[in-house]
Amino acid sequence: MKVVILGAGASSTAGYPLTSDLLPELEKEMDSTRNIVVKDAWHRFSNFRKEAKGVIQRILSSTNPEVVLSLIDLYTETRKNEEQDFYTALGKIHKQLKSGAEPLGKLPDNPKIGEPKEFFKAKIAVRDFLDCLNHFFGWRHYCDYKEDSTEKRQYLRKELSSLSKGDIVITMNWDTLVERVLLEDGRWLPGDGYGFPVRLKRENGSGKIPSPISESSDVKVLKLHGSYGWRQKEGSSELYLKFANYLQYLPIKYSKQILVRDCVEPRFFQGYELVMIYPSFLKQLKTPQMQLIWNRAAEALAGADEIHIIGYSLPESDTAVRTLLNTLRFRSENNDLMITVDDPNSEVRKRWKDFLGEKITLRNRSLGN
User: Fold this and answer.
1) How far apart are CA 238 and CA 264, in angstroms?
2) Between the CA atoms of 80, 81, 86 and 89, what dihedral angle is there, to the nearest 10 degrees?
3) What is the pLDDT of residues 121-139, one digit of tens each?
4) Whose CB among 25, 289, 324, 369 lies 3.0–4.6 Å from 17's, allowing a Cys bridge?
C-alpha cells in the first residue's frame, strides 16, 4: 500500500499560502473583502495583537501564526487551570466544614472576580481568527469549483495518478484540493472518503441516491487537522459536513451532477464550531471522528510499503504528527519501507533526514515538477 503525505507546499502551486504566509494572505483578503462581518473580526484580531505590551506584544507580532495562536491558547489554558484550582480548593474547604474540622489553608481568589479584560479579548481573538480563516478557505473552495480553475489542479492530478485502490492520502491542509481532484477522477466520494462514515441524502429530498454514490472510495483522504466545511454541533461531539458553500460546491458526477447533503446536519441553525485544528502548539482532537482519522492514519502508516511526502516541512512544534511518524525511521532502516521526501527547501530536507535517517530518498523538487 502507498501513502502520500501532503503539507501546505502541496497546495501552493494552486495559489494557497504556505503556513508562513498565512497571516499576510489573510490580511490581504480581509482588506479586499466586502464582507463586513469578517472584516470586523479581522480588525478585532489585529487590534488585540497591536494593543499588547512588552514581550507579549513582540510574540503576538510574529508572522508565524503558530506562535501567535499558541500564546493565546496558553492564556486560555492558564485561566482554565486557575478556575480548576479554585474549585478544587473550595471543595476541600467545604468537605472540611461538613466534617466539623477547622478549614486548612486559604481559598485562592476566584478567577471570575476581577477577570482581566485581556482574557475575554483573547478568547474573542481566536474566534475572530477562525472566522477569517473560514471565510478565506470558503472563497478559495468556491473558486476551485469554477470550471476555469481546473487547470490549476492538473499538477496535483498528475501526482495522484500513481495511487491505486486502497491507497491513502494523509494531509495537514484545510483546503479541498485533494478530494476535489479525486472526485473529478471518480476515485473519491464524501460518504466514506474522509475515513469516517457520512450518511448522505439528495439535497432536494426527491429520489434515492444512486447506489454507486454509496460505494466505497478507491482512495481515502485523511485530514489530520480537520477541514474547511466540517462542523460540530454546539454542545455535541458530532461532526457533520456542511451543505451550504461546501458540499454544494463538491457536486458528484453521475449521468448529471448530483448535490448531496449530510443527514446529520441540523435543519435550522443551532450554533456550530469549525472543525479546523488551527496552527498552535496546543492541538486537540475534539470529536470521535477526528480520533478515528488519526487512528486510521496510524494504521495506514503501519501497513504501508511506500510513503511519499510532499510539501510538509515537519515543524518542530508539530509534536503530534512527529509522534505519528516516529516509527517510520526504524522500518526504513530495516529496509521494510521506502520513503521519498520531495521539497525544494534544503533546510526542510535536512530536517527530514535528521528525523527519519539516512536511508530515505530526498529530492529537491516542488510538487508538479
Assistant:
1) 8
2) 140
3) 777 888 898 899 999 999 9
4) 25
